[in-house]
Amino acid sequence: MTKVEKSGSTSAKVLYKPVGLAGSLIAGAIAGKIFDQVWKKAAPGPEHEPPGSLETGYPLKEIVAAAALQGAIFAVVRTLVARGGARAFQRATGEWPGD
After folding, report:
1. Which of 2, 9, 38, 61 has a CA 20 to 30 Å removed from the CA of 54?
2. Total domains in the fold of the chain
3. What percent of the chain has pLDDT over 70?
4. DSSP letters along 47-88, please?
């Protein structure tokens, strides 16, 4: 596998930290909204709120399904936002913030 981006310097990594933190917060908010919309369409029955891990009114398989779906959505959104932020940082500074 070849590297497309050049390795980032220490200063680029330090300068990128606030950008990465802001991106993570934004990604979490976006992922939460996406998950809520997906769960409303996927949820069985009239209840549209996702089950919490300590709620006894739901079967374990539904709780695990909700957690797996939420985790998958969060991971994909976080990756897309992080990658987009890194690309924008690279365009602005000429340095890749990772590696």
Report:
1. 38
2. 1
3. 89
4. --SPPPTT-TTS-HHHHHHHHHHHHHHHHHHHHHHHHHHHHH
